[in-house]
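Q: What would this chain look like folded?
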Amino acid sequence: MESSQSERYSRPFSNFTLPNIFALIGTSWDFYKSQPVLNAVLLWFLVLPMTAESLLTEYQVNQPYFQNITWEGVASGQTNPNLFIATVLFEIVFILLLVWGMACCTLVGKRLLQNRAGRARTSFRAVSRQARRFVMSLILTDILRGCFTFFWALLLIIPGIIYQIRTFFYFIAIVCEGKEYRSALQESRNTVQGFTWTVLWYILGLSAAVFLPLIVIDTVLTEAIYRLDERLLPATYLVSSFLFGIGMLLFILSSISLYAQLKKMKPQEIQE
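A: My prediction, written as structure tokens:
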């Protein structure tokens, strides 16, 4: 009995091998097509907030008020700060909606960890309500992660980069595994431990494979519309938001698939 228990805790990594980048993206695309609720998440929490953010940015660029505003002018009463405050509040709302959307995508993608990739009948209302409780935890953990990265980077740049890579999956640990703050960061570190540089290449590869084609498509469409009629440029914001919303969704789902594969490759004692 003692011998078998000893072998259990001393055996090497399992024989699972990581799928290639395009296999992860293909799995994510098939999963997306089987989950109708993700279309509503894409529209309300990704496309519309990003479109509104682009329109707000254009308004700020073209509005002389934002070009001339200074802290001295606000402090002296020469400049009314109400418009500036309103835009900051809008920015915060857009960020919250995007994080909420990220939580929704991750929550639906939890089925990838459970090997339940079939069609789900979950409603958009139910998903958004369940995901809402993760929003502040995601934001605060990301801030905590940034602080730890900064402190590691004070020593040397490389430790900061390594910490960022190893804690990349913190959002999955929060939404899918119920972790919070430091425990979520630690869960991600435990999962990535031993595969740090492999995970880095997968992150870079997924980013390139998902977003580079979208950037090319977006650039071509924007240039074509610009040559046709400059007044139609605001319409490209909606198209761009849709393209990059799809990209974000696929990247999140691919990250969950990668996380699930890494979990399978860890020794039994780490999983338990």
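The CA atoms of residues 10 and 267 lie 8 Å apart.
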